[in-house]
């Protein structure tokens, strides 16, 4: 099971959004995840179906085959920071934003909503 959390539910323009993905194994058997690059997860910030920002945008990932095993009752944490800018580096307009996170190559997905408040500039 994947859970996405932020440190707050509302952010002023100068604040960084701290995003945590928690991948838990609530089952009775070990879960194995295979990755074909060094990337394990991704996160997007979206509004009205449009992607405003993506954590992996402009990042390079090594081409390596790895396996992650999570034992029953155990979990792994992945973190991302968002400076409230879009894919071109511009400040995102105020309003609601949906954050979506997922584990690469799996069906593990989660989302949460936050509010960008206050005035820009």
Account of the protein in words:
This protein is mainly β. The strands form three sheets. It has a five-stranded mixed beta sheet, with no helix packed on it. Strands 1-3-8 form a three-stranded antiparallel beta sheet, with no helix packed on it. Strands 4-7 form a two-stranded antiparallel sheet. It contains no helices and ten strands. The model has no long low-confidence stretch (mean pLDDT 95). It has one domain (2-116): Intracellular proteinase inhibitor BsuPI (Immunoglobulin-like). Helix content is 0%, strand content 51%. The protein has strands spanning 2-6, 10-11, 17-24, 31-35, 41-47, 50-54, 66-70, 75-82, 95-103, 109-116.
Short description:
The protein is mainly beta. The chain has strands at residues 2-6, 10-11, 17-24, 31-35, 41-47, 50-54, 66-70, 75-82, 95-103, 109-116.
CATH class: Mainly Beta
CATH fold-level name: Immunoglobulin-like
Question: Order of strands in the sheet with the most strands?
Answer: 2-10-9-5-6
Q: Structural class, judged by helices and strands? A: mainly beta
CATH homology group: Intracellular proteinase inhibitor BsuPI
